[in-house]
Amino acid sequence: MGNELQVMRLNIAICDDEKAIREQINELIKKEKAGIGTDLYETGDALLAADKKFDIVFLDIQMEGTDGIETAKKLRERDEDTILIFITGIREYVFQAFDVAAFHYLLKPIEEDKFHEVFHRAERELEKRKSNRRETVFIKTRNRSFSLEKDSIPYIESRGKKVEIHTKGETIEAYASMNELEAQLGEGFYRCHRGYLVNMAYVAEYDSGSITLNNGEFVYLAKEKYGEFVKAYMRYLRNGVGADG
C-alpha cells in the first residue's frame, strides 16, 4: 500500500528567480522520482497567476514582486494541504517561513543529501495527510449523532457544558467535553488554551497571545503554553502527525 501511495502522481512547482536553482531542483526531483512532471516559475506572481493546486511547492523567499512569504500566504488560502519547502540563502529568513506553516526549508547552495532527506519527508507527509483526511471524530448534538472528518475542523471552542465545533462550512454545537475531544482528535490538534483546541494544519501565524488560522480567524493561545505550543508546532511541521521522532 505504501508503495502505491509513493508512486501517486505528484504535482510539484519550483519557484525561484535563479534559473540555475530551478534547474538544479528539477534535476534532483527527477533523480528521486523518474517521470514526475514539474512546473517551473521565475516569480511568485507567475506561480499565483497559474492558479493551479500543487502537492509540493519549492519556493524562494527573496524574489522580485510578491516575495516568497506573501506568495505562500496566498497559496495557503487556496489549499491548506500544499507542502511548502522554502529555499533561501539567508538562514534568518527561515523563521518567517515557519509563520506560514512551511514544512521545511533548504539553504542555498542546495546539498543533494539534504534535498533527498527533505523530499522523502515531504512524500511521507503527503501520505499521512491523505490518510488523515479520512479520519473522523464522532459528534453528538441534541438532534443527531454523526461523524466529522478531522481535517474539516479548524478549531473547537468551549462554551460552558457544550462545545462549538467550527468546520469549513458551519459551526456545530455539541454536548462534549474539551478533554474528551482532545483525546479523540489526537496529535494533529493542540489544546492552546483551556477553551480552545486548534488543528495544526490550519495554523498560519502566531504570537504569544493568539494563533491566526489560514481562514483569517484566530484563537487564543495561553501565555504559559506559548513555549510548549511552538515546540509542538515545529515538531508537527518537521515530522507530520504521528511521525516517529
Verbal overview:
With about 240 residues, the protein is of the alpha/beta class. It is built from eight helices and 15 strands. Strand 14 and strand 15 form a beta hairpin. The relative contact order is 0.11.
In short:
With 245 residues, this protein is an alpha/beta fold. It has helices at 2-6, 19-32, 44-50, 68-78, 94-98, 112-132, 178-185, 226-239, and strands at 12-15, 38-41, 56-60, 83-88, 104-107, 136-140, 145-149, 155-159, 162-166, 171-174, 189-193, 196-199, 203-206, 210-213, 218-220. The longest helix is centred in the middle third of the chain and has 21 residues, at 112-132.
Topology record:
Elements: H1 2-6, E1 12-15, H2 19-32, E2 38-41, H3 44-50, E3 56-60, H4 68-78, E4 83-88, H5 94-98, E5 104-107, H6 112-132, E6 136-140, E7 145-149, E8 155-159, E9 162-166, E10 171-174, H7 178-185, E11 189-193, E12 196-199, E13 203-206, E14 210-213, E15 218-220, H8 226-239
Parallel strand pairs: 1-2, 1-3, 3-4, 4-5
Antiparallel strand pairs: 6-7, 8-9, 8-12, 9-10, 11-12, 13-14, 14-15
Q: Please give the number of β-strands.
A: 15
CATH C-level category of the largest domain: Alpha Beta
The succession of helices and strands, N to C, reads HEHEHEHEHEHEEEEEHEEEEEH
Q: What is the CATH third-level topology name of the largest domain? A: Rossmann fold
Q: How many helical elements?
A: 8
Q: Give the CATH H-level superfamily of the largest domain.
A: Response regulator
Shape: elongated
Percentage of residues in DSSP E strands: 25-35%
How much helix is in the residues?
Answer: 25-40%
Count of all domains: 2
The CA-CA distance between the termini, in Å, is 23 Å
